[in-house]
Design brief:
The protein is built from four helices and 19 strands. It is of the alpha+beta class. The strands form six sheets. A five-stranded antiparallel sheet has the order 2-1-10-9-11, covered by helices on one side. Strands 7-6-5-8-12 form a five-stranded antiparallel sheet.
């Protein structure tokens, strides 16, 4: 079990995080903000062998081949591959992992069970990010989930994750004014298994990021992320295809990359399914959530989280 304890009384984002359980003594990831190069510390093999984080090409709803993490234009054997055309998607594969969150006084604890043991009978352990896509009230889990490497490119009413394209959303920092249901349709119209990004998958990756960087501030641990719209070159996907699984700079004119995902934050406003706030659903002043489809903007079958959203 690899875990962290976050002391919320400590203001420093790094000093507030302590390794616990089997993470004690491990060296976290560090990134040189001058050139973006990542030092994986003790986490390189854990990231790829335990958590997955394997870039790959998805074609016909299956893994076509795994990619060289240091050059996505090659497969893991060094053969040239095409990652710029529709009909395929460049994704990152994450391997099923159980995790647990708890709080005690002003401390927050996050644990990951990394031996691939079934923890469904243990109190507090969940595997929400790996729940199957369709009406999964019975808690059926997939062995992997796949997350798009790039911000979505819209073609023929479908979203794709491919390199060398101008993603939907750049230019006005939202899905070009698209309505939520339209965005969901573009994500799911490719068939069974495809869905809009869910809050539970994103929060899982954020939790992993805090674990491997031993820091609760991703902009300090990885990089600020791309913000100014005037940097045209950074608005195209694939600018970090040759920059490994992690990359970041302290400047705001460079994209970031974590677990092989480009532009995880910065420069675009993302929407996540499985969570609703008053801006989307006018039925409540509080946040609503749902762990599995079907999703909608009315909050049908959603649970109420007694927390009001904040604007940053």
């Amino acid at each position: 079990i690899l875990g962290i304890r976050i002391d919320q009384d400590v203001a420093d984002s790094s000093a507030s995080v302590e390794y616990i359980d089997d993470a004690i003594g491990l060296t976290p990831i560090s990134i040189n903000k001058n050139n973006g190069v990542c030092n994986y510390g003790d986490w390189g093999e854990i990231i790829t062998e335990v958590f997955g984080a394997r870039p790959c090409i998805i074609k016909n709803n299956a893994v076509n081949r795994y990619l060289n993490p240091d050059n996505y234009a090659q497969d893991i054997d060094g053969n040239a591959v095409t990652i710029t055309t529709t009909g395929i998607d460049v994704m990152v594969e994450f391997t099923k992992c159980w995790y647990r969150y708890r709080s005690e006084s002003n401390n927050r604890y996050l644990y990951f069970e990394v031996t691939k043991k079934d923890m469904s009978g243990e109190p507090g352990w969940v595997c929400t990010a790996f729940q199957a896509e369709v009406n999964n009230a019975s808690n059926q889990y997939r062995n992997q989930f796949y997350y798009g490497v790039y911000p979505s490119y819209l073609y023929n009413n479908k979203f794709y994750s491919i390199s060398g394209r101008s993603p939907e959303g750049y230019g006005n920092e939202s899905y070009s004014g698209l309505k939520w249901n339209t965005v969901r349709y573009y994500c799911t119209s490719k068939g069974s298994g495809w869905q809009m990004e869910t809050i539970f998958k994103r929060m899982y990756i954020i939790g992993l990021l805090m674990l491997v960087t031993k820091n609760r501030n991703s902009q300090l641990s990885v990089g600020n992320g791309f913000f100014p719209k005037q940097y045209v070159e950074e608005q195209r996907t694939g600018t970090l295809d040759k920059n490994g699984l992690f990359y970041g700079r302290s400047s705001v004119d460079r994209a970031v990359k974590c677990f092989g995902i480009e532009n995880m934050w910065g420069g675009i406003q993302y929407g996540c399914d499985g969570i609703l706030g008053p801006a989307i659903s006018a039925s409540s002043t509080y946040i609503k959530y749902k762990m599995y489809p079907a999703y909608d903007t009315r909050g049908t079958g959603y649970s109420l989280l007694n927390v009001s959203p904040h604007t940053v």
